[in-house]
Structure formats: C-alpha cells, structure tokens
Amino acid sequence: MRACILAVPAPIATKPLQLTERPKPTPTGKEVLVRIRACGVCRTDLHVVEGELPVRKSPIIPGHQVVGVVEGCGPEASRFQTGARVGVPWLHQTCGVCEYCRSGRENLCESATFTGWVVDGGYAEYAVAPEDFVYPLPEGFADLHFAPLLCAGIIGFRTLRLSGIEPGGRLGMYGFGAAAHVAIQVARHWNIDVYAFTRDPRHQRLALDLGARWAGGSTDEPPVKLDAALIFAPAGELVIAALKTLKRGATVALGGIHMSPIPPLDYDLLYHERVIRSVANNTRRDGEDFLRIAAEIPIHTEVREFPLEEANGALNLLKNAAIRGAAVLRVG
Ligand SMILES: [Zn+2]
Ligand SMILES: [Zn+2]
C-alpha cells in the first residue's frame, strides 16, 4: 500500500513525510482492516511530525481522522460486516481495567494508545484498529466532510462540554480552525452566542459566516464579559487573554494536546473562582454523543482537499493558518 511515513521529526517546511510503499497490515484478534478513503489533517499530526510530542513509534504513519470501509476482520472480530463505512479516531485502545477506565474516564487511561502516534494511522491506503474503538458512520455525510468530525469535532465537543457553558450563554473561542468551526455549529444549535478571537481576518470571516456574534483579534476586548472560553490555538499567552474576558466563576477550557508555556499570571485574573482546565483525548461516549448531534444538526464542515502525496503541504498550510475549516487527504 502507499503510505506517508515519518522517520525523524523535523520542521514541516523541510517535508519530513515521505510517500512510500509499505506492506498492507493484517488484522489480528478483534481488529478490523479499513480501506481508507479520506483522512483529516489535525494540528496534533503537526505536533507529531515536528517533534513537539515525544516519539512513541518510529517510523510512524500519522493521521487519526480516518474514514474508510471495512475490508477484513481479525479472527475474533464480529461487530462490522465487510463493506461497512467506519471512522477510526485518535483513541486507538484503552486497558479497560484501570481506575479511569472503570469510572467512565477512559480518556485518562495511562495505558491508552493513540492512532497516528503510538500505532500507525491514516495517511495511508489501509489501517487496522480494534473494532470496539471504531465508529459506525451515520448516513448523509460525504467521506471528506466527515473526516474532520473524528477529532476536531469530537475533541471540540468535549472541550465545549467541559467549559460548562449553558444554553443562552456567551462563549469565547480562541483560534478558529477545524475544531472551532465545528464547535460553533454545536454552540449555535444550543443557542449559545459565540465570540471568536483569531488574528487571521479570513478566520474571523469564517466565524461570522458560521454565526459568531462578534469576531476580533486574539487579545481584543469583546463587547461583553463571557461565561466560558475555549482555546484551540497552541499559544499559552491566550490563557491570559481569555481569563481577562471571563466573568467570575467562569472556565477556560484548553482543547489542544500541546501548548507553549503559559506566562506567569496575576492571581487577580484567576481569583473569583475562575478555572483553567485542560481537555485530554475523549471517551467513546463523547464520540457517540457528538456523532448523534452532528447528524441531527446536521453539521457541515468546510474542507480543503489534498491528495495523499501532498500531506507535507497540507500540514504546512495548517501551520500557517491558511486553511479555511479543515484540511483532508483524499486517499481512495
Ligand atoms: Zn485504563
Ligand atoms: Zn486530532
């Protein structure tokens, strides 16, 4: 099969991913073999490729927003028929027995493995994944438009929930890429007013097109105080900017796996019970809840399509904020 391989992490401008031929994987145990049609490009892939996340497998095939079709099953797999359309997400597998797994918090499992980081992912023609961690895809979504829902969508949704925002509330979103452009559609569905903070005028435009009440620069002051904020850009200084916009008792939820250092902050900014909380991965329950809502709304993703061989270019554009919505690799 054709696959984009990362041998050594390096700046994306040096094109570290190489398109090469690899043996097609064989499903074992409860795994399914997925023939990939599309794979979303996520900022976490950039963190893997550039080495901001430690190397967990080398070489590695990145990508964890995989849409494809089941082509084969391991000897113990029985959940999907051949030909079923499925999504393979970031959470590859958890242990199922630790205190986190047993208390509905499998996203925190210390033995969890992750697609495109710990095991090979979707920048390729085939991948294998445990059937219990694969999502059946709802009807009505095209492959390319569905792919960004599998991480940007699900993680954005968990970030939205952990922010504690309630219907009718006022919500700030910092960084307006793939995750925010999905999360705003859920927020609007819940009658939440969204205030978008992003330095890129094209992303401000997208936010307004999707129903934001206001869009401004990263450190601009919004016209009202906010009930919660979500941060999707990996810049620690945004935590300070967000705290300045929040009401007393409000939460700023951080949706990324990596962030530059958060500068020292004046305790007055945090006082009055404001909360800073990170969001780590997601549970399968988050994914199921989100995909149900996504089909109900229905969510529309703005995507820019790239062929597999242009994975480096897609990541480079993502790094430079030049993607409106989400980048997706078309594979098959
Ligand atoms: Zn566990
Ligand atoms: Zn992701």
Largest sheet: 7 strands, mixed
Distinct small-molecule ligands in the complex: zinc ion
Number of strands: 17
- Could you tell me the mean pLDDT? 97
Span between termini: 11 Å
Tally of alpha and pi helices = 10
General form: globular
Query: How much helix, percentage-wise, in residues?
Result: 25-40%
Radius of gyration: 19 Å
The H/E string reads EEEHEEEHEEEHHEHEHEEHEHEHEHE
Low-confidence stretches: none
Task: Provide the structure class.
Answer: alpha/beta
3D architecture notes:
This protein is an alpha/beta fold and 332 residues long. Helix content is 25%, strand content 26%. It has helices spanning 43-50, 99-102, 143-146, 152-162, 178-189, 201-209, 237-245, 267-270, 284-296, 311-319, and strands at 2-6, 17-21, 31-41, 66-73, 85-88, 91-93, 113-114, 126-130, 135-136, 170-174, 193-197, 214-216, 226-231, 246-254, 275-278, 303-307, 326-330. Strands 3, 4, 5, 8, 9, 16 and 17 form a 7-stranded mixed sheet that branches. The structure holds zinc ion (2 copies). Residues 42, 44, 64, 90, 151 line the site of one zinc ion (ZN).
Q: What topology emerges from the helices and strands here?
A:
Elements: E1 2-6, E2 17-21, E3 31-41, H1 43-50, E4 66-73, E5 85-88, E6 91-93, H2 99-102, E7 113-114, E8 126-130, E9 135-136, H3 143-146, H4 152-162, E10 170-174, H5 178-189, E11 193-197, H6 201-209, E12 214-216, E13 226-231, H7 237-245, E14 246-254, H8 267-270, E15 275-278, H9 284-296, E16 303-307, H10 311-319, E17 326-330
Parallel strand pairs: 10-11, 10-13, 11-12, 13-14, 14-15, 16-17
Antiparallel strand pairs: 1-2, 3-4, 3-8, 3-17, 4-5, 5-9, 6-7
Bound molecules: zinc ion (2 copies).
One zinc ion (ZN) binds at residues 42, 44, 64, 90, 151.
